[in-house]
Amino acid sequence: MSESSEFRVIVTGSREWSDTLSLRAALATILDALPRGVLLVIVHGGQENPDYSTNADRVAQEWALEMEADGLPVRQEPHPADWEGPCRPDAPDGAPGCEPGHRQTWRGRSVCPAAGPYRNEEMCAEGADWGLGALKVGTRSTGTRDCLRRMARHGIPFELVIEGNARGLPEDLLSRAARR
Hints:
Elements: E1 6-13, H1 20-33, E2 39-44, H2 56-69, E3 74-78, E4 104-106, E5 109-111, H3 115-125, E6 130-136, H4 142-153, E7 158-163, H5 171-176
Parallel strand pairs: 1-2, 1-6, 2-3, 6-7
Antiparallel strand pairs: 4-5
């Protein structure tokens, strides 16, 4: 746990995530295990995609706001990716950064496809005590998998909340996931 009186949890998950109850239960279990007086900080990507009726970021955000409204020691910390922002010369993991001309057009806007990985690295580099990965089997979930791998590189233990059959998930993530 952090030296301060807060416990930071990074929540990352599939945009197509729909198992709201499982993710909420995992968050509640973490809150219940904390000593009295410790603030639970839910760090998430703030993904607001109108193409999906629910997603892991939204579930985490709503849960945190509900707990806070009920007077519980919970705060949310969104880290939305700067999709329309400038490209960067160096990638967050030391690899070469954005290539000239790699920007894409999405809904009439010019976006940097590396904005998500940059945001993931920033969340992980700030540190956390724990991570939750909400993976929906059968979806690409490249951003979620990227964030989980970055958590592992930063020494942040994480557990997986899986929607679907776990046999469809990469072995490197399954083997790194913590067990409670």
